[in-house]
Amino acid sequence: MAQSVGRELVLLRHAKSAWPEDVPDHDRPLAGRGQRDAPAMGRWLRAAGHLPDQVLCSTARRARETWQFAQPELGADPPVSFEQRIYQASAAQLLGLVREEPSAVKALLVVGHDPAIHELALMLAGRDPAPQAALERMSAKFPTGAVAVLALTGSWVELGPGKARLTEFVVPREAASAGGG
How far apart are CA 21 and CA 54, in angstroms? Predict the structure, then answer.
């Protein structure tokens, strides 16, 4: 049996993207709102104490730009892996990537896409004793730029459905009004 170690998984949906004509989906940039929201989310992560040891970021331009705008506001420079497998992944595939993390990583940030980020958060969040209001809000909608923070014990490889606890769910508007923007 693995030793019980506190870990944190932070799931960040990329910030609001633009829809320019004749640009492949993978290459869509952030919209102006996304460029404003991403730094606010970085500031919120820092203020709330959710600093990652490692970042896994989709290779899609909107996800990379979200990280590029958020990272300077963290006050930290964690290693980042730009991971093609996050783009168009299913929740199960994202879980597989998380399970590959080494045991030395205690706090992992994943920058990805809907619906996989939303579905993974719902899959992992045990129903008790999650903050009920946060869980209900997250269940209803996981907007662009939103962050779900999940606490877990044990190793990454042991992570599975219902094995984490949702501790916070924040959208950019809330992060900005909390001093994040």
Answer: 34
pLDDT of residue 103: 92
Higher per-residue pLDDT: 100 or 4: 100
Classify burial at 26, counting beta carbons within 10 Å of its beta carbon; exposed 0-12, middle 13-18, buried 19 or more. middle
| Cβ–Cβ under 8 Å, residues 127 and 165 | no
CATH code linked to domain 6-105+112-180: 3.40.50.1240
User: What is the C-alpha separation between 33 and 1, in angstroms, rounded?
Assistant: 46
Which residue bears the tokens 């420079």? 77
Nearest to 71 by CA among 94, 103, 41, 27: 41
Contact 10, 50 (CB under 8 A): yes
**In which element (H, E) is residue 165 found?**
strand 165-170
Strand runs labelled E in 75-136: 80-83, 107-112
Task: Return the domain boundaries, the chain.
Answer: 6-105+112-180
**pLDDT digit string (tens) for 52-100?**
999 999 999 999 999 999 999 999 999 999 999 999 999 999 999 999 9
Written as six digits, the tokens of 55 are 């970042």
Residue 141 has pLDDT above 90, yes or no: yes
pTM summary value: 0.93
**DSSP character at residue 16:** P
Q: Provide the residue type at 104 as one letter.
A: A
